[in-house]
Amino acid sequence: MSFFTGISSDSGKKKKKLYFILFSTILVVAAVIGLVAGVVSSSSRSSSSSNHSDQDSPSHTILKSACSTTRYPELCYSEIQKVPGAKDKLTSQKDVIQLSLNLTLTAVQHNFFTIKKIVKTYKSLTKREKTALHDCLEMIDETLDELHETKDELEEYPNKKKSLSQYAEDLKILLSAAMTNQDSCIDGFSHEEADKKVRKILLAGQQHVYHMVSNALAMICNLTNTDMFNQRSTSGGRNLVEQEEVNKLDSTGFPTWLSAGDRRLLQAPSVTPNVVVAADGSGNYRTVSAAVAAAPEGSSSRYIIRIKAGVYRENVDVTKKKTNIMFVGDGRRNTIITGSRNVVDGSTTFNSATLRSGHGSWRVILHSKTQQGLQSIKLWHSVQVLISQHFTNVTFLHTKTHYTCTPFVNST
User: Fold this and answer.
1) What CATH class has 247-387?
2) Residues 67/215, Cβ–Cβ less than 8 Å
3) Domain boundaries in the chain?
4) Which of the listed residues 218, 222, 257, 401 has the most CB atoms within 10 Å of its CB?
5) Global pTM?
6) Least reliable range by pLDDT among 250-264, 341-355, 377-391
7) Model pLDDT for residues 174-226, shown as the tens digit of each residue
């Protein structure tokens, strides 16, 4: 009997210990849960307080104000928010634009590597696809140059060496060109069913860059328009006509920005060429392309190429290193350059131009020996391109779309 009583007593003690351990465990778990809940709640309050404080900061106000003038404000804001600590350093709208341009440059470089990967890994690309991808790489190179030039211009802005309207025009042209490059790249994959596969891979990246550049353009327009308005207000409206000065012609019909040296060249009854192109072999070169290839790179003075009468069946490509080139022909009906590349035969639109530049900043003047004046004048980025009426069958591919600074009102 005592034996079983002992067993019962030990069993009761064990149960009491088990209950005690279980109860203690529950208390510990409850305490941990309470502690965690308190930390989370405190963290949440702290985060909420931090976010509220962040939204009241001057840098946040500057960023939201700048982005509100763009067509894609959420993209403008979110891209800058992704950069740790970047937003806290913003002190002006100009800072927002510069940071946005830096992020755009990174996006363009990403597109470059995407295209390089396609070229390397896709073994069944058609001839047109290969050409279109090469075109895109060339346009990426242009876009990078245009964005870097925009950054440099913006660093100097405002500066007495140029008027506010000249800065506005130059910056607008550079970014308009960068936007058009994205469209032109994608356009190269719009001709055949096979093209659409590559187009699909590239589309998101090209559109992203397009939207980023569009935002930068909108902010620059807002910045320069505001500054020009303030300038007119403080000067009693005397600078009201400044915007018209950019494209104004003088009494002789030449643009006011044309240098005195170029004026003399265009007005002279004849000019002394550096080289002569003649289809019959009587000059230094038989083709215009050969003369351009032999021209010096980065020239600071006009390099004059005389093109004698004849029909030159070629596509002339002036690479970005060939600057300050002047073509002199023997008259509209005598000197003719005509190319034959076309989309139907497998070329891309970008690559089919009879005369084109590998860089947006053209320094080419087309001129004739005859004295009938200029038929048309075009601004090509921030550099002058003069096209006389004495050249025919010459196609300029990069007559960039000029995006206007029409104010965009964001309703949000």
Assistant:
1) mainly beta
2) yes
3) 65-234, 247-387
4) 218
5) 0.71
6) 377-391
7) 999 999 999 999 999 987 776 788 999 999 999 999 999 999 999 999 999 99
